């Protein structure tokens, strides 16, 4: 069958150039795929080049980096590769006493043996948490899209889910449903004062728990003899999901109205009185830039909530995932979209899009990052620009448009126009800049000082952005739970 009804000679030069770039990106992505145990198993972090003897790990297969790769492969119908990747990660799930249930940050095959990294080889020796939370999410996307119910019910998958739940659903002395993690334990992998309950981890936990429930209910439905463990675990996990969402929407979601209320709340509240200011936030701690940032109808989830000092920075990935997983209601998602439109000069600039805003500068940068030269202001994770983040926002918009096609058509039209412009920037700039990992500067004009070129998630993020803009979300999955009180409004 012909791929196009338009004769080749009548195509515009621009469309021919775009097709050539797409083909080149696909070829680059294919080069990143490596074999493990004799079969293609995943993509290395970057296409390797001589590194002057430095012991870099860009030649390893990272679980987090491979999430967009696997989604792209699912859309291409390469289901066996995705399943093999999930099995390898499952086989490497930690059984050590302190880390039982943890999935590896990355792995590689050396001399026929799988070698996994649980943080022992990372800078700062911090184990990433997000890799473990991503595995059930990717597993559920695979199972529901391919309808491989047998794999979802497999005892190995169910054991992996239970080990992970044992790890993350531990009682906490704080008595809150959030998961506490150290600095540097997720995509923000250098010191950035994100310890505690950072947004990205909490949103991933929400998505992870929902997918664990889906997988457990799948096994329960297909099992002739009901499992006592699942019968107990499913309602407990559902309750945790409900409590976590309520907590995040109460304490992390801010608008101009909620900030105005917070500014006028009493402080120093002791005893059994009704706590209107639970974290004792002083009005003087609320930054001035929030007023213009939020405008009148914008809203977003702040970066962290801690006693006396919430983190008001905007983190792109956590907010985009909150839309994708249905943590935010539809009106809240539209408030977030308005905020992105209002602040597009900051978030998109000349290389969409910024990982967080605003960056830390001066003495604050020195004290909170340990004078980290990679995280100098407007660089890397301190306000740097990451092309790999754009597709998450595009997917959030695509899912909202799919569920609510008639809601605020003007807003979604403006946002789609902005996202198309962002895609055109990627189309123009990324091939010329050798698919760099991140970009520096207030406008994201310069290639990152320590950025790797031909970065895998830059390449696949570009491909997914185009796919979602042109065809919407073709993945056959849903994160919503049946009879869910915590679902998308």
TrEMBL record:
It is an enzyme of class 3 (hydrolase). Pfam families: Glyco_hydro_100 (PF12899). SUPFAM superfamilies: Six-hairpin glycosidases. Keywords: Carbohydrate metabolism, Glycosidase, Hydrolase. InterPro entries: 6-hairpin_glycosidase_sf, 6hp_glycosidase-like_sf, Glyco_hydro_100. Gene3D superfamilies: 1.50.10.10. It catalyses: Hydrolysis of terminal non-reducing beta-D-fructofuranoside residues in beta-D-fructofuranosides. It comes from the Bacteria. GO terms for molecular function: beta-fructofuranosidase activity; endo-alpha-N-acetylgalactosaminidase activity. One of its GO terms (biological process) is carbohydrate metabolic process. Its EC number is 3.2.1.26. Belongs to the glycosyl hydrolase 100 family. PANTHER family: NEUTRAL_ALKALINE INVERTASE 3, CHLOROPLASTIC (PTHR31916:SF28), PTHR31916. This is beta-fructofuranosidase.
